[in-house]
Amino acid sequence: MSKEQLIKELFNFRGKTALITGGGTGLGRIVTETLSKFGANVIIVSRKENNIVKMTNELLSTKPDGFVQGITADLSQEHEIIKLVSNVKDITGSIDILVNNSGVSWGAELGSFPYSAWSKVLSVNVTGLFHLTQSLIPLIKRNASVENPSKIVNIGSVMGLSPYGDGAYSYAASKSAVHHLTRILAKELAKERITVNAFAPGPFESKMTQFAMNSEQQRESIANSVPLGRIGNYNDIVAATLLVCGSGGNYMTGAIIPIDGGLHVTTGPEIFEESKNLLSN
Q1: 164 is catalytic
Q2: 56 to each of 42, 45, 81, how far by Cα in Å?
Q3: Contact assessment for residue 97 and residue 150, using Cβ atoms and an 8 Å cutoff
Q4: What is the DSSP letter of 232?
């Protein structure tokens, strides 16, 4: 097989239909752009209509091979999810790729973290993600096969892998739940020839992290806390998307993929380091 044929086989999404929640901003935007550039039909879901209009117009200006559609929906509301699924069925009879990216966060100090911040965050990040996914399974499994499974990708977080609180208690707990749901669904949907994986990103520049990345000094400080010495960038998400959503991910399911520069493997100080230093002195 030639290099060109191999690339086409691994990264060709023509004829595939992808639905991306939160697909107009942040990491969801990168996923949307990537799948569209490589030929997929994309359905962008967002709570804010202006995000959908802007993203749709930008993609259409590139004259993509696939269609571009946008739907507004608030995934914290059951009736909105029901309406969204109905609208999706009017657009397409099948979904080959579902990317659950929509998410919200809340930060406050321990002792003053509000009760309402739990239902607000979990209703979108966990309840909405799960209910939308189960509602779309009939469409997702329609084109699925042993050789070409359909794909579900959930966007988790390094905060769901390691005990990073940073005042975002409900967010961190919700992302840990997303990771666990990913594994459960991977087990249950394998028989339907659907893979289920999750990204666990570290720090990337987005609307959600803007509060901590307003200056070069802040960005440098965050980069210094990452073992690999930088904040995540556009191509980090592009590459992961092409792998997991493309045929390279056909034999991968139940994986929580850290895209975090090594943050998930950091711990406290080495246990025996100080003792060894004492001996050497």
Answers
A1: no
A2: 9, 11, 21
A3: yes
A4: B
Mean local confidence (pLDDT), 187-196:
98
Between CA 147 and CA 249 the distance in angstroms is 11
Residue-wise pLDDT for 255-267, tens only, equals 999 999 999 998 7
The gap between the terminal CA atoms of the chain, to the nearest Å, is 60
Measured CA to CA, the distance from residue 238 to residue 13 in angstroms comes to: 14
Rounded to 10 degrees, the C-alpha dihedral 147/150/152/158 comes to 20
Q: Which domain holds residue 269?
A: 3-280
Catalytic hit among 115, 164, 169, 171: 171
pLDDT of residue 281: 61
CA distances (Å), 175 to each of 92, 105, 128, 165, in order? 30, 10, 13, 12
Look up residue 274 and give its two tokens: 């100080």
Q: Is the pLDDT of residue 276 over 70?
A: no
The answer to whether the CB of 83 falls within 8 A of the CB of 73 is yes
Q: CATH number, domain at 150?
A: 3.40.50.720
**In sequence order, what are the residues at sequence separation of 6 or more whose Cβ sits closer than 8 angstroms to the Cβ of residue 180?**
none
Q: Kindly report, residue by residue over 141-187, the tens digit of the pLDDT.
A: 999 999 999 999 999 999 999 888 788 999 999 999 999 999 999 99
- As for how many domains the chain has, the answer is 1
